[in-house]
Automatic annotation (TrEMBL):
Residues 311-332 have a biased composition (Basic and acidic residues). Keywords: Coiled coil, GTP-binding, Nucleotide-binding. One of its GO terms (molecular function) is GTP binding. It comes from Rhizopus delemar (strain RA 99-880 / ATCC MYA-4621 / FGSC 9543 / NRRL 43880) (Mucormycosis agent). Residues 309-332 are annotated as: Disordered. This is Septin-type G domain-containing protein. Belongs to the TRAFAC class TrmE-Era-EngA-EngB-Septin-like GTPase superfamily. Septin GTPase family.
Amino acid sequence: MLDLEDFSVPPPPILTTALSGTGIANLPNQRHKIVAKNGANFTIMVCGESGVGKTTFVNTLFTTTIKEPKNLSKRHMKSPSSKTAQIQITKAELEEKMFKVKLSIVDTPGFGDYVNNRHSWIPIVDFIDDQHEKYMRQEQQPCRKGVIDMRVHACLYFIKPTGHTLNPLDIEVMKKLGSRVNLIPVVAKADTLTPTNLEKFKQNIREVIAAQNIQVYTCPIESDDEHVTRRNHNIMTALPFAVIGSTQDVVTFDGRKVKGREYAWGVAEVENDLHCDFKKLRSLLIRTHMLDLITTTEEVHYENYRQTQMETRKFGEPRTEPNENAKFREDEEALRMRFTEQVKAEESRFRQWERQLLNERDRLHKELEAQGEKVKELQSELEAYYHHQRDKSLRK
């Protein structure tokens, strides 16, 4: 009897080239030249309520005016009919040391600004899924030259510095986003909390994230370089990142000119690790882990979406839209309940009217019977009178 191991293919031998080499070690250099020539696409989504400093943070992060500040005087002019988040895309091209990055900033104005925010996160989730869908459809085309890639590589979720913990809206939205994109929680306006309260707030957020099983982005920590491992560990221990955003130059008490916010007690510096985690977040997004964010989006989130879609439809078939739109589910339910209440009210009114008619019918029947009895009595009296008159006439 033959053993299957007899037919196993041995691994290829590892050959060592001569000391001078053949040049295969130059492949990373070739790859570097190709990447440097083509540049990179990088898309960041900033999500959070109005007034937490998303625009200021973006401009501070890239040290230039990427997004124009909003006109606060027109904030009260929002359309009351649009009670969900909107999507605004700002594109820019940054160049540093002959390397270009095509940057896209996705903002979500209107998120969390209403009394009822139950469905405000749906346009955000739909946008992320739509970008995966558009990229997948482009990959299925015969010609894939000039593919437009707007997949979101990092989503910064800004948390209001309440000092307590995540609210139900934050938990629900972060659950939806964590399974679709590299989610990075950020505590906005960290200079409004004392160091003790800020650390307690961050610990409460970490506990809720663990308890609710919310998926957040975690960069690779272990490395052959001990310095890199220690740096990655310091970055991850700062999660959620407490940041201060400011594009203004202020002068400290010791005469240094820094980016920060000036108060009566001193200056809150943006790039001071003792004041906030801005430098760690910038390092995570741009300096050390931008490629990992892009790769994770490609190999994890996009692949999860692609595999899920390919399991439920044929190649080239469009995505099936849900029969029920969740945005209007609550309104539909409210209309159904109101219609039911109106039907019940009309039925109650009809039953009451029917009872009144029946009572009136019974009353009329009783009156008719009473009148019939009176008629019979009158007929009896009339007959008795006729008999009496006839007997009287006969006696005469």
